[in-house]
Amino acid sequence: MGTTYALTGNPNSGKTTIFNELTGSAQYVGNWSGVTVEKKEGNIRNTGVHIVDLPGIYSMSSSSIDEIIAMNYIVQDKPDGILNVVSASNLERNLYLTLQILEMNVPVVIILNMMDEVKRRNMDVDIKKLGDILGTKIISTGSNDRSELKKIKHIVDEDNKSIFERFSYFSKDIIEAVDDISKAVSKSDLESGIDAKWLALKILEKDQEVLSALKDIDEGLLKKGEELKEELEAKYNEDIKHLLAKQRYAFLSLTAKKVIKDTEGNLEKETLTEK
Ligand code: GDP
Ligand code: MG
Ligand code: K
C-alpha cells in the first residue's frame, strides 16, 4: 500500500485551492459512502502519494455529517498523516481544529495558508515558534507563493521532537479523568488501533456518534465515563463539551499572543481573526 494523506481544514481556509495545487489535474470525484457529500481524491504531482480531501469543518465533535465523515475517516481508515490547511488570516479560530486533530494522536503537517493576507495587514506569524508549541511541521504559503508545497512529499515522516503534550492545556481534573478512563480501555478496543486517550476523551464527552460507531464498548467503561462527566459538570457547573472548548481556546489565545508579530518581529497586540 502506498502513502495516503488526508486533507483537512476549516471551510474557506483554501483547502480546494491547495488540493488543486498539489494534485494538478490528477484528481477524481466521488461520494462518501451512504451520503451525497462529495469525496475528492488525487495524487500529489509526480509522486505516488495519495490525498483524500475531507469535508471542510470547524471541529471534530460529531455535530454535523461533515464532522462525522472526517472523524470516521481518520479513526477507521487511518491515513498515514493529516495535511491540515490553516488560514493564517484567521489563526486562532482555525487552530481549534488543529488542536483536536493533535488530540487524535495522528501525524500532522500544518499548511499555513493565506500568509499573503497576513503580510497585507502588516502582520507576521512566527512559524518556528508555532511549530515548536504545537510540535508540528509547518509549511507556509499564500496565493503569491506556493513553492513550499513542494516539500510536502516527505515531510510527514520526518522526526519531530516536541514539547507539545496532548491535553496539557486541560485542567488537572480533566487530565486525570482521561487517564483514568484510558487505563480501563479494553484490549479489544486497542486492537482496533484506536488511540486509548482519544477514546477516553470521547467517552468522557459522551460523544454518541463515536461510541455507537465502535460497538462492544464495555458497559463499565461507559458508566465510569458518565460518572466522571457528571462529577466535572457539577464542579464547574458547565457542560463538559463547553468546558473542554473553553480550555482549548484559552490555550490557543495564549499561543496566538506568542506567535503573532508585526513586520519588525515585535509581538502584536492584535490577534489574527477574519475581519
Ligand atoms: P475551501 O473552502 O477551504 O476549499 O477554500 P477555497 O480553496 O475555495 O478558497 C476560499 C477562497 O480563498 C477563494 O476565493 C480562494 O481563491 C481564496 N484563497 C485560497 N488560498 C488563498 C491564499 O493563500 N491567499 C488568498 N489571499 N486567498 C486565497
Ligand atoms: Mg472547498
Ligand atoms: K479571503
From TrEMBL:
Subcellular location: Cell inner membrane; Cell membrane
Binding positions (Mg(2+)): 20, 23-24
Binding-site list for GTP: 9-16, 34-38, 53-56, 113-116
Coiled-coil ranges per UniProt: none
FeoB-type G domain location: 2-162
Family listed: Belongs to the TRAFAC class TrmE-Era-EngA-EngB-Septin-like GTPase superfamily. FeoB GTPase (TC 9.A.8) family.
Task of the protein: Probable transporter of a GTP-driven Fe(2+) uptake system.
Name assigned to this protein: Ferrous iron transport protein B
Protein's organism: Alkalibacter saccharofermentans DSM 14828
Span within the parent record: 1 to 275 of 669
